[in-house]
Amino acid sequence: MNMIDYENAVFCRKCENYDRENVSLAVDRLLAQAGFGSDEIRGKRVVIKPNLLLAYAPEKAATTHPAVVEAVINYVKSYFPASLIIAESPGGTYNESSLRRVYDVTGMTGVSERTGVPLNFGSDSDTLSIPDGENAKSVQAIKPILDSEVIVNVCKAKTHSLAVMTGASKNLFGVIPGITKFEMHARFSDPQKFFGMVTDVNCELKKHRTVFSVCDAVICMEGNGPSGGNPKHAGMLFASRNTFSLDSVLAEMMGVHDETPILAIAASRGLIPASADMIAKVGDPVPTGLDFVKADATQGKKLTKIPAFLQPRPVIDRDICKGCFACVKACPQHTIVEKDGKAFIEKKNCIRCYCCQELCTFKAVRIKKSFIYNIIK
Ligand code: SF4
Ligand code: SF4
After folding, report:
1. Measuring CA to CA, which of 18, 38, 110, 135 is 20 to 30 A from 311?
2. Which CATH number is 10-283's, of 3.40.50, 3.90.550, 1.10.238, 2.60.40?
């Protein structure tokens, strides 16, 4: 009989819908099968870190569903942690009023009320030193994460304009406070360096803490994620102690494994095998043939080397733009300006980070592909 490698295996459990009882049963079995229990939880300071990108209702599939967060909390509580808190740094500003709105709309306020677990409203952050970082030697991180001994990373499965897909590892980029995340895109404008930095953050957090990931892939997002795509049913929950293993299996299910930059970086650093086939999967079979629609900005592997000016770029559809200028605040290059009451992208300085598309709740940011790009493709 093969021994299970609990550090790197991915545990998989069917969960067809968000009925609370159903999710609770599936989460209990999944986490018990993964062996997540007393040894790692009892007497520890535990933080629950969902994906709460923006103030979107759960039906949009942009954020971790409250039923999953609640079930995970109830499971963790049963093993008597010393303290438990729900904390996240969403996409916009990181302050009490923004957090309150995000928690209310995403269903986290209800989770907190039902479970008695507090939400973080503090906006303090500090330096996370990364002495062994290959791309970053330090980043800012929110205090509840820095103060924790255990991070339960309750992520959401989505396709993604920049990352191709997001699950466990990219959710830990969300420990960086508020708009500092946008600044990181300017500091690491080369996608290889950006995802190298995200890999550094993942490795550093794991070095001094338990990081246990649970992925809500019951209803995922496909298309222009992380915010502008459409819900896609996969009916699965995943769990792993290795964020990259989890993402590898998830990306394989979504049909984007070979195009996902962070997986190539993690494999090159020996953190996962190059292929998802070589990762142990325990539990229910992972669905195949789901045929996820990719984000418009996703480039095939062979296209990542083409010059920047030929790569897909964001443009603003003036007929849809409402002139709210959330994108202006999000742009790390300050290359979005106002023109006649609407937003306009001056393409010269654009680094194709797609933060503008991510932050536009009206889906007014489209991806334009040049004639030559379409021919090469
Ligand atoms: S965020 Fe969207 S709607 Fe608002 S100004 Fe930018 S493109 Fe227009
Ligand atoms: S215009 Fe959009 S894609 Fe370009 S740098 Fe600004 S936020 Fe990033």
Report:
1. 135
2. 3.40.50
